[in-house]
Amino acid sequence: MNLTKLAAGLAMAGVSVMLTIPSEACTNLIAGKKASADGSVMVTYAADSHSLYGMLNHTPAARHPKGAMRKVVEWDTSKPLGEIPQVAQTYNVVGNMNEHQVCIGESTWGGKEELVDTTNNSIIDYGSLIQIALERSKTAREAIDVMADLVDKYGYASSGESFSIADKNEVWVMELIGKGAEKGAVWVAVRIPDNAISGHANEPRIRKVNYKDKENVRYSKDLFDFARKRGYFNGKDEDFSFADAFGEHSAATRRGCDARVWSFFRRFNKDADSYYDWCAGKSDEPMPLYIIPDKKVSLADMQFSMRDHFEDTPFDMNNDIGAGPNHVPYRWRPMTFEVDGKTYLNERAIATQQTGWSFVSQSRDWLPDEVGGVTWFGTDDANTCVYMPFYCSMTVVPEQLKEGNINEFDMNSNFWMNTWVANQAYNRYDLMIPDIRKVQQGLENKYIGSRPEREAELVALVKDGNKEALIAEVNNEGCSIAKEATDAYRNLAQYLLVRFMDGNMKKVDADGNFIYNENGLPVYPEFPGYNKEYYENIVKATGDHFLEK
């Protein structure tokens, strides 16, 4: 992505369109199959952009005649970049996962500006890399090969990028950057150990690795020579750090980017707190690419991790003065502000208001591909969305998740219903979030709890060779779930408006039903007002101005 461009809001095939600055970019979290509670390989992804509409894309499997060409369109601008030869067979792609359980996420970090393509001949941008690799790959390793081959043949038209590339057996982190006036890109890919968790969030994360380990480390053949030629590195090959050679690091980027990964790490490893100093700019000892968790990570854990606001850390967004009287863990953009000539920053958490959509993927080697690959997909803010399960064999996108317009409100849109709920909570977070969690967790627990029985039924159809019935079942359930979640949030949005209207809080019973008096009239509401700190700050700022005489 050119560092001078802003994203145009186009999303294709389930991959995000992002703005280039770290405040408006994406987060990936990773768990290997031996680090997960059920043996899944899991990847999460938040597509964060202030102009991105949350929708689920689908590209059907297809056969193509000899000589067919595939158009390549730049994801950030929708600008046609060129054409490449089409392959004979392309695979079904639902969001960021294909029918073989291959899943790819990304986060942009930009890197050295002089390495953005200057030839004007490169036609493969980062988003096309993801989509084309999903269309053509049966494994994560094959996806890496496809991506490397594409940039070699057709040039790389974006800036520094990190990719999470998973299949049902393993997961890799691949980092890639262009070569400026030279065609192509340099890259490195590291296999995350099965018993480890990892992540990346708009900072390159691959540093010194064992480049002789061909089974777990792969890289472009000119990686070291190119870095030396450009003056980014002058040591021995074995000491090479991709992140330090091509990235642009500062205390601000660590806090805004690596801190998100650290907040994930510390949930599952008691020693991860030691990396706080790196994220806070107090130490130059880097946080590792991956760590071994003290406990297995569940699907629900991964979903909850996408809702992180640095709770219970020094970066906690719920309790500083910026959270206001209702402990709102959000800060409106811009990310920085000035007071008395000094620049200050707002925290950038994993969960953020500008998310278009996010997902938690599961790739599972003990199930047939049609059932093993599932994307738990949610629109708008990950903190308040509902993650809905969609299988990689799905061929129909639910009406509530089809393409829409971020400038046109739609009562039937999952994105708009989630946005309606979230934006009410941004004003009175601590009052509304319990009601939101009740609906959100009720639906998610239902969907998670029903998977074993449901998947047993789907696997039986696969074993019987009844693919047509399987696809029909997967499509019908996906449409039913999307409608249920959207309807529930439409009702929730209306409920929140009624309960908290005019700054009051209407009284409800244990089931959330409004309470009426013996004459059938609504009982008098509560006045939650503000917290003690808020009133103290008013007095500090105004003195006796409001003092009751």
Question: Explain this structure to me?
Answer:
With about 550 residues, the chain is α+β, with helices and mostly antiparallel strands. About 30% of the residues lie in helices and about 20% in strands. Helix 10 runs antiparallel to helix 12 (about 465-500). The protein contains 13 helices and 21 strands. A seven-stranded antiparallel β-sheet has the order 16-14-1-2-19-20-21. The relative contact order is 0.11. The N and C termini lie far apart (about 60 Å). The chain has helices at about 125-135, 140-155, 225-230, 240-245, 250-265, 275-280, 300-305, 370, 415-425, 430-450, 450-465, 465-500, 530-540; strands at about 25-30, 40-50, 60, 60-65, 70-75, 80-85, 90, 95, 95-100, 105-110, 160-165, 170-180, 180-190, 195-200, 215-220, 290, 335-340, 340-345, 355-365, 375-380, 390. The longest helix is centred in the last third of the chain and has 33 residues, at about 465-500.
The description of the largest β-sheet is:
7 strands, antiparallel
Low-confidence stretches: 1-24
Task: State the helix count.
Answer: 13
The helix-and-strand class reads: alpha+beta
Q: Quick check: average pLDDT?
A: 94
* Largest sheet strand order: 16-14-1-2-19-20-21
Percent strand equals 15-25%
In one word, what is the shape?
globular
Q: Please give the number of β-strands.
A: 21
- Helix proportion: 25-40%
